[in-house]
Design goal:
By secondary structure, this protein is an alpha/beta fold. It has a single domain, classed as Vaccinia Virus protein VP39 (Rossmann fold), CATH 3.40.50.150. 34% of the residues lie in helices and 24% in strands. The chain is built from eight helices and seven strands. The protein has helices at 4-13, 18-23, 27-36, 50-54, 66-74, 110-120, 137-141, 152-161; strands spanning 41-44, 59-63, 79-81, 96-102, 124-135, 164-172, 186-193. It has a seven-stranded mixed β-sheet, with helices on both faces. Strand 1 (41-44), helix 4 (50-54) and strand 2 (59-63) form a beta-alpha-beta unit. Helix 1 (4-13) packs parallel to helix 5 (66-74) and helix 6 (110-120) packs across helix 8. The longest helix is centred in the middle third of the chain and has 11 residues, at 110-120. The radius of gyration is 16 Å and the shape is globular. The termini are far apart.
Length: 196
C-alpha cells in the first residue's frame, strides 16, 4: 500500500530528471490540454498541479491527498483538499466550463468513478465539458495504485450514468494500439453536459 505522502513524492519525481526537463516532454500534453479545455477549469484529482500549471492560472485544483495539495500550493496554484473545497470561495455552483479528471478514474472501481463525476457536476456550467483522460494498457499496468482499467466503453458508461453526451473519444498522442507498449498514451473522453 502506497501512503499519500509516498504517492506525492512519486509525482514530484516523475518528470524531474534533467533530460525530461531539457526535452520538455510535457509540451505535447500541455498543448493538448490548452487546446481542448474551456476555462475556467476545475481539476478534480489535481495531484501536485501539473495540469493546473499548463492552464496558466485558469484552473482550481481539488485532491484527496493533502500532501499533493501542499505541493500544488507551493507552486503558486489554487488548490484545496476535497474535504475543504465545498466551503471555499471557489466552490460556486455552475461556474466551471470544464471539469477535468486526468488520470483519476482508474484509481477506483467504475461505480465509484461514475459517482465521483456526478459529485462534481453541480459545479459545472450548463453545457459545460467533462474531460476524462485515462492511461491505456501500458500506463495502467505501470502504477500499482490503479484499480480498474478505463477505456472507451467505461467512459461511455460514466457518460450515460451522468446524462452526459459523448462529443469525442480518441487516443492521444499516438494511435490506440501504441497504448499497449507506450505508457504515456492516453484515452481521452470529451463529454458534454446537457443544457436542458
Amino acid at each position: 500500500m502506497v501512503s499519500p505522502e509516498e504517492y506525492t513524492q512519486r509525482l514530484e519525481q516523475t518528470g524531474s530528471s534533467w533530460w525530461k526537463r531539457t526535452l520538455d516532454v510535457q509540451a505535447p500534453y500541455r498543448r493538448h490540454i490548452r487546446r481542448i479545455v474551456e476555462p475556467p477549469v476545475l481539476d478534480v484529482g489535481c495531484g501536485i498541479g501539473r495540469n493546473l500549471l499548463h492552464l496558466d492560472g485558469q484552473g482550481v485544483g481539488v485532491d484527496t491527498n493533502e500532501h499533493s495539495i501542499q505541493v500544488a500550493r507551493q507552486r503558486g496554484l489554487v488548490a484545496h483538499t476535497a474535504e475543504v473545497f465545498p466551503s471555499t470561495d471557489e466552490a460556486e455552483l455552475g461556474i466551471y466550463r470544464t471539469l477535468l479528471f486526468a488520470h483519476v478514474l482508474e484509481h477506483m472501481d467504475l461505480e465509484a468513478a461514475s459517482d465521483l463525476v456526478g459529485d462534481y457536476l453541480p459545479y459545472l456550467a450548463p453545457d459545460g465539458l467533462v474531460l476524462a483522460i485515462v492511461p491505456q494498457e501500458a500506463g495502467f499496468s505501470s502504477d500499482p495504485t490503479h484499480v480498474a482499467f478505463v477505456g472507451p466503453d467505461e467512459i461511455a458508461f460514466v457518460a450515460r450514468r451522468n446524462d452526459l453526451d459523448i462529443e469525442n473519444l480518441y487516443s492521444f498522442p499516438f494511435p490506440r494500439w501504441v497504448g499497449r507498449l507506450f505508457r504515456h498514451n492516453e484515452t481521452v473522453g470529451l463529454l458534454r453536459r446537457r443544457s436542458n
